[in-house]
Structure formats: C-alpha cells, structure tokens
Amino acid sequence: MTRPFEVEISESQEELEKALKHPVTASSKERLQMLYLLKSGQVSSRRSRF
Questions:
Q1: Between the CA of residue 17 and those of 3, 35, 46, 47, what are the distances in Å?
Q2: What is the chain's pLDDT, residue by residue, as a tens digit (50 residues)?
Q3: How many CA atoms within 13 Å lie on the side-chain side of 36?
Q4: Taking every pair of C-alpha atoms in the chain, what is the biggest distance, in angstroms?
Q5: Does the residue 16 lie in any domain?
Q6: For the chain, what is the domain count?
Q7: 26 by DSSP, 3-state: which?
C-alpha cells in the first residue's frame, strides 16, 4: 500500500519560475522544476507525464 504524495509549497509560482532560471546545481534544478510543475498544476504526482 502506497502513501499519498502530499507536499505544501510555500513559494509562489513566480518565485519558483525565477529560481529555475539560475539553479545552483543540477539536482536543485530538478527539485525546483518539480515544485514548479506541481504548483502550476501541470502535474499532480511524481509519476505524472507531461
């Protein structure tokens, strides 16, 4: 049985978009991209394809 994926994103969509333009590392870019996609509603889970 899997647990539901729940995350609270405190940053605004605009803040995440701005941070994506200047990531520090590749892994931080991946994390920021996932947060941005979740916040913007483009995906609803980690396994979603867009």
A1: 28, 10, 19, 21
A2: 567 767 889 999 999 999 999 999 999 999 999 999 999 988 887 777 65
A3: 15
A4: 38
A5: yes
A6: 1
A7: helix
